[in-house]
Structures are given as structure tokens and as C-alpha cells.
Design goal:
Blueprint lengths: L2 H13 L5 E10 L11 E2 L1 E14 L5 E5 L4 E5 L20 H12 L7 E7 L9 H17 L5 H16 L6 H8 L4 E6 L5 E5 L4 E7 L8 H18 L14 H7 L5 H18 L1 H6 L3 H17 L6 H11 L4 E6 L7 E7 L3 H16 L4 E5 L6 E3 L1
Parallel strand pairs: 4-6
Antiparallel strand pairs: 1-3, 1-13, 2-7, 3-6, 4-5, 7-8, 9-11, 9-12, 10-11
Helix pairs in contact: 2-3, 2-4, 3-4, 3-5, 4-5, 6-8, 8-10, 11-12
Bound molecules: alpha-D-galactopyranose.
Alpha-D-galactopyranose binds next to helix 5.
Length: 391
């Protein structure tokens, strides 16, 4: 069932009435600039045509009651229970509830009125797949509270509050990319964001190519620790390079030439992690002009280089992602293929000649299945609008 219908049916069933409003917030795919957002780099995501939907109404108690229709589970919380992450009956908040509860926490911290709601949400963004299902949940609830609270902030400000929820409440030290893409997405456009200034522009994808997303179906658990460790290594590199480059505040400020000159000063592991970031930021600086000039082969090569770097230097790939990428890169019409998102499992993103995209998807699925015995989900995706109320 479509998530939109699912939230409506479940709302009626659980609350015995129709919801007052609906909101929708998409997942995202990222074409270039991976693991650079928290290093003040540049990213090139697009919101995708898969989203979290929420049906909601104002509640007449102090507690918000949320149903996750995909799990058939309920969570109940109020501003007073946020700190302990418990429910009124003393049980722990389920993991999925930390995203909406985190949003409520961040909104409250920002002094924004977030009244209690009755809500049901459901999503067709596959969870743990590198397509930002959690950011889409945060942005859907952000939009819902904005409506109920009667205030208005910009999509970027909502994204920043979502990032804060994730950093401080959920405990993932993520950057701004996912919430930004979910909040600011535009139909048929890529988004190019400078993660330092937060200036962004849209970029059109040349009309002769498609974005194909390939889900390995591998889900890694407990990746938060690994993710936070990568971020720590980047910060460590900045600290160690600062004596020689006093003006730097993030790896964004280190040129490839300076990095090569000074890299011997870094411990081996820190050097590998930081090299990925410095070189990936250099790649992503080239992205817009390559796309605008239709230099797809060059752009695709940067995607391929990005994957090799994520695999060998940043160590966030896994065997199944590597199989999916290797098979894709050898297929006709494929300009570039790489893992997308944080890594450790999940999806690859492929830039493929439009007229060959269907054949590419079929051949890739068959090849992956015969090598891994896993049945992948592969689809051609369309850039979509960002989070908002919907009919
Ligand atoms: C996750 C994070 C993002 C970003 C990517 C890697 O999706 O939430 O902020 O760091 O990983 O590029």
C-alpha cells in the first residue's frame, strides 16, 4: 500500500477520526561529495521520489501519540519525558521514536511552540539504505509541528534543527546534507550546497541521463559509532595540520598540494581518512561546471574515483556495495557508479544514459543476484520537491 493511503487508514483506525493534515518529506540520493558535509565541503544531492508521509491532528492532551504504521507500534511522549526517553508507562521510547522526539526537543530548544499531536507516519524510503530515511522522518515532523505551532521558518532553518536533533538527541554526529536535501528538494533538479556558507543553487541534470539507485539490501547495524569515528579522525587531522596551516578550521581549507606536502605528519589511519575528504572536496568543486557543460564522462569518472576512495581510504564500503559498483561500471551506458550516503551497506547511485537505463537496471539486478544470491531493488529515480504539507 502507498504510504499516503497507509497513514490515512491507520489514522482512522487508531484515532477514530480523519486527520486534519498531511505532510510529506522525501529521502535523498547524493551524486558527489560524500563524507564532506561535516568538513565544510560541497555536496550534490537530490531529493528523491520516495518519502515519509505523516497524517496528523492537534491532540487534546499534554502527550503526543505517534503510530509508526510500518511497524504497527505506538510511542507516547511529551516535552517533560524527552530527557529520559521514556513513555508515561515507564517503558523506553522505541528507537524509531527518537527522530520525532528529537525534533520536538530541537524545536523546544529553539523556543518554537510545538503542540502535542496525534500522528501516524509511514515511509517508502527504505530504512538504513543510505537514502536518508531518518532525515525524511525528522523533516516530516518538522513540517507538521510548524503547521500546528503556527510559526514559519525557512526550509534551511528546519534542516538545521533536524541536524541538531540528530547530533544532540539521537547521537549521530551527521552533517547538514540529508536534512537540507529533504527540506529544500526541487523537482527535476540537483542541489549543490556549500556546507560552510550554506549557500546553495540548483543544477539541472542533463536530459539524456537518468539517476539509477541500486539497493544491495545489506543493512549494517551499529554504524553510528563508525560514523562518529570518521568524523573524529577528520577533526584530529585538522588539529595536527594546524601548526603548519594556522588559518585552517576544517579540511575544506586544506588544498591537495598542502595535504600532500604535510601528510607524513599524520598517523596512517588519520592520513587515509583525511586524504579522502581533501580529494573528495576537490572532486566536488568540479561538479557543477562538468554537469553544466554536459561533460558526463568526466563527471562519471569522479563518481568512480569517489567510490574507490570511500572503499580504500575512508573504509565505509562493504563487499556487496563493491560488487554492485563493479558490475555497474562495466555496463553499457553507465557513466559512473558509487555507494551513496554514509556507506556500510545500503544503496549505490548510478549515472546512466537515459535510453539505456531500463536495460542497465535489469542486467545489473541479474548480475548482482547471481554473484551474491541477494535480490536487489533497482529503480530509476526522479528528483522531487522538498518537505511540505500535502493534500
Ligand atoms: C550520512 C549523514 C550525512 C553525510 C553522509 C555522508 O548520510 O547523515 O550528513 O555525512 O552520511 O556523506
Amino acid at each position: 500500500m502507498q504510504p499516503k493511503n497507509k497513514v490515512l487508514d491507520t489514522f482512522r483506525e487508531k484515532f477514530g477520526t480523519a486527520p486534519a493534515f498531511f505532510a510529506r518529506a522525501p529521502g535523498r540520493v547524493n551524486l558527489l561529495g560524500e563524507h564532506v558535509d561535516y568538513n565544510d565541503g560541497f555536496v550534490l544531492p537530490a531529493a528523491i521520489d520516495r518519502a515519509t508521509y505523516i497524517a496528523f491532528s492537534l491532540a487534546d492532551s499534554d502527550f503526543s501519540t505517534l503510530w509508526a504504521a510500518d511497524f504497527g507500534q505506538r510511542a507516547v511522549f511529551s516535552p517533560q519525558t524527552l530527557a529520559t526517553k521514556t513513555q508515561p508507562d515507564g517503558s523506553a521510547l522505541p528507537d524509531w521514536a527518537s527522530y520525532p522526539a528529537g525534533m520536538l526537543w530541537a524545536l523546544t530548544e529553539a523556543g518554537l511552540n510545538a503542540p502535542s499531536m496525534n500522528a501516524v507516519f509511514a515511509s517508502d524510503v527504505p530504512r538504513g539504505s543510505g537514502l536518508s530515511s531518518s532525515a525524511s522522518v525528522e523533516m516530516a515532523f518538522g513540517v507538521a509541528w510548524q503547521k500546528l505551532g503556527g510559526w514559519e521558518i525557512s526550509p534551511m532553518e528546519l534542516a538545521q534543527l533536524g541536524q541538531k536533533a540528530e547530533n544532540k538527541y539521537v547521537g549521530v554526529n551527521c552533517g547538514i546534507m540529508d536534512q537540507f536535501a529533504s527540506a529544500c528538494g526541487q523537482v527535476d533538479r540537483l542541489l549543490y550546497l556549500d556546507c560552510r556558507s550554506l549557500h546553495w543553487q540548483t543544477v539541472s541534470l542533463p536530459s539524456n541521463v537518468s539517476i539509477v539507485v541500486a539497493d544491495t539490501t545489506i543493512r549494517r547495524k551499529l554504524t553510528t559509532g563508525e560514523y562518529n569515528l570518521r568524523r573524529d579522525a577528520c577533526e584530529e587531522a585538522v588539529r595536527l595540520l594546524k601548526p603548519d596551516l594556522p588559518q585552517i578550521t576544517a579540511l575544506r581549507d586544506v588544498s591537495v598540494a598542502d595535504f600532500n606536502r604535510l601528510s607524513a605528519k599524520l598517523p596512517e589511519l588519520v592520513e587515509k581518512r583525511a586524504r579522502h575528504v581533501v580529494e573528495e572536496i576537490e572532486r566536488s568543486r568540479q561538479a557543477v561546471s562538468l554537469l553544466e557543460n554536459g561533460q558526463l564522462a568526466q563527471f562519471g569518472r569522479l563518481m568512480n574515483d569517489c567510490h574507490a576512495s570511500l572503499r580504500d581510504l575512508y573504509a565505509v564500503s562493504c563487499p556487496e556495495l563493491d560488487v554492485m559498483v563493479r558490475l555497474a561500471q562495466a555496463l553499457p551506458g553507465c557513466y559512473g557508479a558509487r555507494l551513496t550516503g554514509a556507506g556500510f551497506g545500503g544503496c549505490t547511485v548510478n549515472l546512466v544514459a537515459r535510453e539505456q537505463a531500463d536495460g542497465f537496471a535489469q542486467t545489473l539486478a541479474a548480475g548482482y543476484e547471481s554473484e551474491t544470491r541477494l535480490h536487489p531493488e533497482i529503480y530509476i529515480c526522479r528528483a522531487s520537491a522538498g518537505a511540505g504539507l500535502t493534500e
